[in-house]
Amino acid sequence: MFFLTPEVVLMCYENLFGNICRVDEEFYRMKTCAKSLNSGHRYRKFIIPDGIDFLLWTGACCTHVLMKIHFCGAAGTTTGSQHLLEVNGSRILLDCGMYQGRREEAWHINKDFPYFSPADVDVVILSHAHIDHSGNLPNLVKKGFQGNVYSTYATRDLCQIMLADAARIQEHDCAFINKMNKRRGIDQPEVYPTYSEQDAERCMRLFVNIGYERPIPVAPGVTLTFYDAGHILGAAQVCLDIEDRDDGKRKRFLFSGDVGRGDNELLRDPVPVPDVDILLMESTYGGRFHEAPSRDDETFCQAIREALELGGRIYIPSFAVERTQQLLYLLNRAYHEGHLPLLPVYVDSPMAVSATGIFSIHPECFNKEVYDFLFREQDPFSFEQLRMIRSVGESQALNRMDGQAIIISASGMCEAGRILHHLANNIGNPKNTVLFVGYCAEHTLGRKIIDGWKEVPILGKQYRVRARIREMDSFSGHADHGELLEYFDRTGGPKSNIILVHGEEQASLALANALEERQANPVSIAQLGSVMVL
Fold first, then answer.
1. Residue 3 has pLDDT above 70, yes or no
2. Predicted local distance difference test score (pLDDT) of residue 101
3. How far apart are CA 410 and CA 390, in angstroms?
4. For residues 20 and 14, what is the distance between their CA atoms, to the nearest angstrom?
5. Where are the beta strands (DSSP E) in 257-297?
6. Distance from C-alpha of 491 to C-alpha of 281, rounded to nearest angstrom
7. Is the separation of the CB atoms in 131 and 101 below 8 Å?
């Protein structure tokens, strides 16, 4: 497999020249004999983004611009998805995600676009609405992008609420960082939000929405088709049919986005895409397997029953989009079928409340069971014991109420939102249970709690962890190692160029090894800041 680093760039030219070229700052070397290198072939000089000059053997004089991809985010990590594709003179940005992690580190990463100029981007295509895939879009527009933003209908509707919410969270986080720096006597310039709610609104004006499997031209010689990815509402695989004007060949480029597990409580399974030549594929769960299959309702109900036996409340950090609605549908069904005792359920997240309304108007994304339920019975996300919380006063009152309850609150990684206040007030009570039902990235508060930290920082203070901590990954919206391999097998075509993104180093390496064992084509692992000619 190839590690695509800025220092040592590995480029495959099997389709064009039948050679593999390895280049770095120190030397220029071809995987051919010295005689070939000195036999009069022309050379071209390129400059990659970090300023390293290198030569590529082309075999003939050529003035065309080669199709290439820049890895500007979610390379070597699972957040901040940004991949810039250059083809036929157009620059197409696949996702415009926000890096999520330590607050101050994330701010420095997100405020600028170090690998490209936003004004030079022609088109943005969003795979889905999660903030690590769409969250820096308002900043892109603020810094000069003026092109179209293509997405599915549901992705557009979710982005409208999620991007505005991200702006509010940034404002809060920046105020917190500035306050803590001042309190600690740290002499640093104040940090500021990368964009405002007004910036978020302005970027929504650029959206162009299309349904699944409806081809549309988006750039010269490039046609876009969205295929359902089964990850969250509106999530899509990005399929680009390209007439490459450099070599005159037709190529099908597929960006997997985030791949769903299949057999989801709410959503359709990922749709197999045929005839793929170039596959840009996520690797989040490479080398890891979920502990339980999706739709593991009984394990969830058992976890709730065991938590109730402790006599306290159940706090579920949850992503406002898809995971919360998945939980509501499962609880609704469990109550009606008698699998759980009746007790109050509170959704304490204004964005989750708004997102739940959006889910109800996008039946095109539901699997047959939920689709039929929606039209035959009633709203699948509403039941008698459910209370939706919007106001701050109602949220604060939850910490003063008596009795047992289930409280679902964002964010799922415990990096922002009202879940922080609930944890600060309740994580020290051994009668309470904190039930994680989603992936928590490295360095997040959620990951620290899951990893067994005895004391964790919440809102600037340290809190002892005495509550019972439980993790379930059957709800994960990401395909695990085996499911990613199944997705790869179902994806049709020669797949002669395979590139892994959206994974921590060990995860990508594990998936790359598995892919190379089951097929003959080389597998590349993208590194941040690197460029690959396609």
1. no
2. 67
3. 12
4. 7
5. 278-282
6. 11
7. no
By CB neighbour count within 10 A (0-12 exposed, 13-18 middle, 19+ buried), where does 188 fall? exposed
What is the DSSP secondary-structure string of 286-311?
A: TT---SS-S--HHHHHHHHHHHHHTT
Tell me which H or E stretch contains 10: strand 8-12
Q: Select from 437, 433, 448 the least CA-distant residue to 412.
A: 437
Under a CB-based contact definition with an 8 Å cutoff, are residues 210 and 226 in contact? yes
> What stretch of H or E contains 23?
strand 20-24
> CA torsion 271→132→443→409, rounded to 10°?
-90
CA 293 vs CA 261, 271, 472: distances in Å: 9, 19, 11
Pairwise CA distance, residues 80 & 95, whole Å: 9
Identify the DSSP state of 473: -
Instruction: Look up the pTM and report it.
Output: 0.82
Place of tokens 């593991």: 296
pLDDT, average across residues 208-236: 97
- pLDDT > 70: percent of the chain: 87
Alpha-helical runs (H) found in 92-152 = 103-110, 131-134, 137-142
